[in-house]
């Protein structure tokens, strides 16, 4: 009997057909067939069967597109898929590739050259959503997932569905009919006639072959001993496939049916993505001793960086006999990507910790948005006579009028690259390894803070130019004091009155309520005094602003100028944005070329701007 699991995770791999690409270089999009309703030969606990994914589903608006089902870092996210729709027996979608991912850039060039790629899906199916039928003539069973969740779409060299591929403009719109096979077959390449001279065998990529052997063992349920035996005899991928078929036939004859080749129950700790995250977390715990390790990471607890390099080489089948520690580190960096990804995972965790520890004070005064690209982000403001009016006896409802204004800002990219030497890795120098990302995390937060502060100091303290051609703080905007004054109850009252009197685009009353008093360090004490809660001796000495305003001190501001700002939940004003799906600093890792070791790049896609002048007030100060 199968385990009583509530969900199954489906991924599929098989040779993909060739088709011309519909890739658009300008838009970086390609039309793909994500899946079809064709049956796929499979196994379950009762033996061979066919599996079908029903296309009568509700599809998500967008899912990640990743590299061959790898989920170990953001570097594996190639873009996103959207516009899911069914045509005949095909589920189609539009894939948009990232413009900032080196893997996506390489894939884009391959597609632009007309090279085809297969498409695989990751789908989650509850046990209750499988429906089984049997052919009355042959007795062959068909398992149909009548309801399933699309988790991700992958570009893969070996998709399970032979009809899932990048689409060609000449592909017909008719429904694809696929005949089910009686049993799953792994085909070995044909042998050349003895009279014909055999071609020289291609050199074997040991790491790639071992990775495919592990995939065969895991998806066909052959077990770790079978995987180890194939790796120990240095089997090629073709030899391992033939051995897998023999083993499946042997077990079937003995009545020992393996688990389904396309269904994985629970968590597989040998999965490369899980292994990278677990090892990266374990290394991070040596830097941050307060971190509690997850169960997968406990296996790598207290391993040094050379230990992790050795583990990556062993997993990839790289021989290490007689090598020094420095040579093992070099082998790990240049023969397997896992070691660099593990280091990148740890750097990312360390950098995010320090980045989140020192947020800009001004970010509290703005509203976060996400942008899908780097084009100017336009914010439309509407205003007019929108108050509801009494309906007369005839039932006439009067139309309102709208006035429109438009402000804009755009994202920009900020980045820095640094390297960690092979000597530091071989010496397990955690101090050098942790200090640089920790400092870069702080500098990333400082970059955001400076960009926000620069908006206020621009134009000699009057702010950026708005869509009407005037500075943010302008007498025509009703948000600038005519003369600079100290911060006291009187000047705060005048500033509040000006914000209360703000009107919209068509002259309608807005009545903004100030919540924050923003000052430079030079005015911090003055601001604290005026907002302090004091027990007055007379009614005239009562401080009406005590407990009403929150003091915000921004160290990047200078001079005597001070500001009042409304809550971003009440009215638009300051706005800041990240690139969608890449909020905060992003870390990319590769084996070093300019340096002997590993290189890491920290990238931030960030932008900010004011989209309305009514939520802020400025006084030049004195």
From TrEMBL:
Q: Has keyword Acetylation? A: no
Q: Residue spans with biased composition (Low complexity)?
A: 172-195
Tell me if Protease is a UniProt keyword of this record: yes
Q: What GO biological process term is on the record, naming one?
A: proteolysis
Q: Where is this region: Disordered?
A: 161-204
Q: List, in alphabetical order, the Gene Ontology terms for molecular function in this entry.
A: peptidase activity
Which keywords has UniProt assigned to this entry? Hydrolase, Protease, Viral release from host cell
- Domain of life of the organism in this record? Bacteria
Listed InterPro entries: Peptidase_S78_dom
- Residue stretches making up the Prohead serine protease domain: 89-172
Q: Which NCBIfam families match?
A: scaf_prot_MCP2
Q: What is this protein called?
A: Prohead serine protease domain-containing protein
